[in-house]
Design brief:
Helix content: 25-40%
Shape: globular
Radius of gyration: 24 Å
Number of helices: 13
Strand content: 5-15%
Distance between the termini: 31 Å
Oligomer: single chain
Organism: uncultured Prochlorococcus marinus clone HOT0M-1A11
Protein name: Putative isoamylase
CATH architecture of one domain: Alpha-Beta Barrel
Pfam family, one: Alpha-amylase
InterPro entries: GH, GH13_cat_dom, Glyco_hydro_b, ISOA1-3-like_C
Strand order of the largest sheet: 1-2-3-4-5-6-7
Number of strands: 15
Structural class: alpha/beta
CATH class of one domain: Alpha Beta
């Protein structure tokens, strides 16, 4: 971040960006690992930038602090959290308890390995470290002393330093017992749920690990929300124009009930299109394949399964038609995210069109490629305004998109009810070649409050609108470059341009003056 004081710490610099986050509409920030980590754990000549190489679970990373003294460092971070709270922004920490920076049996002995490697790590009969983290070792999180250490670490950051929650990196790895066998009721999660100091803390997890274990709807901790990778993949595939995507798209919009099977509760899904792992939003619509040569691993690293589409030319182009389509697709993806049931998460910089040049694994790029660019000349201001607008709409319609009640449970009269349509009313097309999804939302037996049409087809399509006692207002049209004042839709149908979306809202929601905000 910008600073006139080169000695100013990262946390102090971050506070200067709180007004930006507030204006954008952010309510929670999730920080990549800030535990003290090994910055040299990277290919020769590069630097570990993300921090997934912990050497201590109790102290902030030294490069992020002023480093005057240990106590002042802790106070500096505590002050950072307090200032975020004053701005009504929660702080979630990405925590790495599944592995350490000590690597495999040939790796360095920094901490755990020197104390008791047979206690802290899974080690096979051949004396080799067992690894489902992809980093050379796996922490034996369900052994008594190891559990206690993890709990003490969580309590330190929550009770002493004031953070609001944690996101477990490769969290399902913490459910493994001896011989890496998955446990149905892992003691570590039972201990977390029973710890009084953690009772009001939010928990999020990656529900997968590098050993093939994947538990999305059945994660072994009832209080933990999970990153929904199926949401990411299905939305990407729908807007990419793939076959067999319409029904999956509808499933993700209504909270992924095919996986999160609970009724009448908040589906514990963290919905996202992009994250630090993978392409940025702009790169998702700009590249068909990864370009990770800067990582000095001959482009072997990073995921090959990206569901991305360059729209005709690989990489940046001056072709206006392609650039317009790419911009529209970014808007389509973001609108789809914010009209879906669940907790929406966005990646830093997606709102301004940040690119990593096609690098989908920037973990070792502590440079312009991995940084946020704060210069307005380098930002997509049209996209930024769209993000702000859609986030405001999401907040305004919280009662409609409120995920606290799932699906069409007939016991609750006033819960939002989804009515699925196609080109014609009440006639959804779930065929393999369908590229459209349309739906309206009612509360109880009232008039429809919202109608949304998504057209991922290559041509414009007309959609019938449901009858509404009040005027329909066109609020979002992703085919338009500028955000315009809501306009009355008087026709019985609307035309949605190719690869575009429409959000139409009843005048009942906003009142006759069309006052959205």
């Amino acid at each position: 971040t910008e600073s006139t004081d080169k000695d100013e710490s990262c946390f102090k610099k971050f506070l200067k960006k709180i007004p930006y986050l507030k204006e954008l509409g952010i309510t929670t920030i999730e920080l990549l690992p800030i535990f003290c980590f090994d910055p040299t754990d990277a290919p020769n000549g590069l630097k570990n930038f993300w921090g997934y190489s912990p050497i201590n679970w109790f102290t902030p990373h030294f490069e992020y602090l002023s480093n005057e003294s240990a106590e002042k460092n802790r106070e500096e971070f505590r002050k950072f959290v307090e200032e975020c709270h004053k701005a009504d922004i929660e702080v979630i920490l990405d925590v790495v308890y599944n592995h350490t920076s000590e690597g495999d049996s040939k790796g360095p002995a920094i901490s755990w390995k020197g104390i008791d490697e047979n206690l802290y790590y899974f080690i096979g009969k051949d004396k080799n470290y067992q690894d489902v983290s992809g980093c050379g070792n796996t922490i034996a999180a369900n052994r008594g002393l190891v559990r206690k250490l993890i709990i003490e670490s969580l309590k330190c950051w929550a009770s002493e330093l004031g953070v609001d929650g944690f996101r477990f990196d490769l969290g399902i790895a913490l459910s493994r017992g001896e011989n890496l066998s998955p446990l149905d009721n892992p003691p570590i999660f039972e201990d977390i749920e029973c710890e009084p100091e953690l009772i009001d803390i939010k928990f999020i997890s990656e529900p997968w690990d590098c050993g093939g274990l994947y538990k999305l709807g059945d994660f072994p901790s009832k209080n933990t929300f999970t990153w929904n990778g199926h949401f990411r993949d299905d939305l990407r595939r729908f807007w990419k124009g793939d076959k067999d995507t319409a029904w999956n798209m509808s499933d993700k919009i209504k909270g992924t009930p095919s996986i999160y099977k609970e009724e009448n509760i908040f589906p514990k899904t963290i919905n996202f299109i992009t994250s630090h792992d993978g392409f940025t939003l702009k790169d998702l619509v700009t590249f068909n394949r990864k370009h990770n040569f800067a990582n000095r691993e001959q482009n072997r690293d990073g995921d090959n399964h990206n569901n991305s589409w360059n729209h005709g030319i690989e990489g940046p182009t001056t072709n206006l038609l392609i650039n317009d389509l790419r911009k529209r697709q970014q808007k389509n993806l973001i609108l789809s995210l914010f009209i879906s049931k669940g907790v929406p998460m966005i990646l830093m910089g997606d709102e301004i069109g940040r690119s990593q040049g096609g690098n989908n694994n920037s973990w070792c790029q502590n440079n312009l490629l991995g940084w946020m660019n704060w210069e307005h000349a380098q930002q997509d201001l049209e996209l930024l305004e769209f993000f702000k607008y859609v986030i405001k709409i999401r907040k305004k319609l919280i009662d409609i998109f409120n995920p606290s009640l799932l699906l069409n449970n007939q016991k609750h009269v006033n819960i939002p009810r989804y009515h699925w349509h196609g080109i014609k009313l009440d006639n959804p097309d779930w065929s393999s070649w369908s590229h459209t999804v349309a739906f309206s939302i009612n509360k109880g037996n009232t008039n429809p409050l919202v109608w949304i049409g998504l057209n991922a087809y290559s041509k414009s399509i007309d959609f019938s609108l449901p009858k509404c006692k009040y005027n329909w207002l066109k609020v979002v049209d992703t085919s338009m470059s500028e955000i315009s004042k809501p306009s009355i839709v008087s026709e019985k149908s609307v035309s949605i341009k190719s690869r575009s979306s429409l959000l139409i809202i009843s005048e009942q929601v906003f009142g006759a003056k069309n006052n959205i905000f």
